[in-house]
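Sequence design from tokenized structure. All designs in this work follow the same two-part layout: the structure record, then the generated sequence. An example of the structure record is given first.
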């Protein structure tokens, strides 16, 4: 009994949809806890000495979208925007660097 063949396009589309779902829904629950660096800084007692990064005023700073008041929607949108931006950038990079067959 042979397994059905799955096309590369199907795998890419399903992977993109799963990534969007995780980024848009699950990321809200993951980002509600401090990351490892913040946790260690808090436990070691030097969290209050931290300064904002140069990107602290960016549109997607702190896992949220500036201007969106609903926290769940803001975090979900930032995840979706991140997935879309990375998909576009990586697709463009792969397209530029792909192997091309020599012309005859």
């Amino acid at each position: 009994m042979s397994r059905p063949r799955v096309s590369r396009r199907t795998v890419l589309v399903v992977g993109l949809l799963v990534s969007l779902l995780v980024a848009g829904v699950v990321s809200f629950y993951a980002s509600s806890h401090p990351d490892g660096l913040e946790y260690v800084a808090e436990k070691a007692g030097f969290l209050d000495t931290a300064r904002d990064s140069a990107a602290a005023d960016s549109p997607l700073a702190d896992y949220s979208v500036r201007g969106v008041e609903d926290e769940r929607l803001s975090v979900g949108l930032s995840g979706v925007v991140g997935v879309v931006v990375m998909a576009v950038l990586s697709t463009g990079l792969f397209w530029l660097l792909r192997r091309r067959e020599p012309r005859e």
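The CA atoms of residues 41 and 47 lie 5 Å apart. We note this feature because it recurs in several other targets discussed in the main text.
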